[in-house]
Amino acid sequence: TALLEVAKGLGRLAKGGWKPARTISFAFWDAEEFGLVGSTEYAEALKAKLQEQLIMYVNIDMYMKGRFDPGGVPSLSAFVADVAKDVPDGDATVYAKWQASEAVRQKAADAAAFTPDLKALGSGADFVPFQDHLGVPTMAIEFIGDNGYGYGTYHTNYDSRTYVEQIADPGFAQGVLMSQMLGTMALRMSEADVLPFRFSHYVSKLNAATALADSWATAA
Q1: How far lies 6's CA from each of 15, 165, 182, 184, in Å?
Q2: Which of 82, 102, 152, 189 is surrounded by the fewest CB atoms within 10 Å?
Q3: Is 66:105 a contact under the CB 8 Å cutoff?
Q4: Burial of residue 112, with CB atoms counted within 10 A of its CB: 0-12 exposed, 13-18 middle, 19 or more buried
Q5: Catalytic residues
């Protein structure tokens, strides 16, 4: 639903004469739970074109009343933070609430100075072929409850519109936030004169990862 709302919003802009400097594509994938079949076949069929032309892939899977939970490659961390700082969420911003929730989750000594970061993407969702097979800068953004994917109706027939309206997202507030985050990302990345990648952040993450691997190798 959030993806459709973004498409409708950009469509209205286009009818008013706006045209993005770069192509913005929308996709829905089938057979995700059967092995990421739809997204993988798409990536395989268009591999050369996507590796040459695709700048960024953003995956959205779920959003409900809860905390902002983005993941992705380190070079996109600053981009996500900048967007989140400009999207209002009640009396604060998406970034401010993300910062506060992550400071608590990670038991930060100074919550006000804490800088939230993108989690590393693993597998199990449709970002996999873009991240792992094509090597495209990839992210996934979600709003999840405290129990993550462990909510009771997950992957059941009760995971319905009624559940969303009454429990997961009353008033569709999180759907609005997701649309605002996704739409702002699409507009900024499509219009950027200089692509907003921070590869210095990637370097620091890789250095930390190799240091951690060294510590595992030498552990008694």
Answers
A1: 14, 20, 7, 9
A2: 152
A3: no
A4: exposed
A5: 32
Round to whole Å and give the CA distance between 28 and 36.
12
Which of these, 189, 185, 190, lies nearest to 6 by C-alpha position?
185
Going residue by residue through the chain (220 aa), what tens digit of pLDDT does each one get?
999 999 999 999 999 999 999 999 999 999 998 999 999 999 999 999 999 999 999 999 888 888 999 999 999 999 999 999 999 999 999 999 999 999 999 999 998 899 999 999 988 899 999 999 999 999 999 999 877 776 778 888 888 999 989 988 999 999 999 999 999 999 999 999 999 999 999 899 999 999 999 888 886 6
Reduced to 3 states (helix: H, G, I; strand: E, B; else coil), residue 135 is coil
Burial of 188 (0-12, 13-18, 19+ CB in 10 A): middle
CB atoms within 10 A of CB 157: 6
pTM: 0.91
User: Are 167 and 78 in contact, with CB atoms under 8 Å apart?
Assistant: no
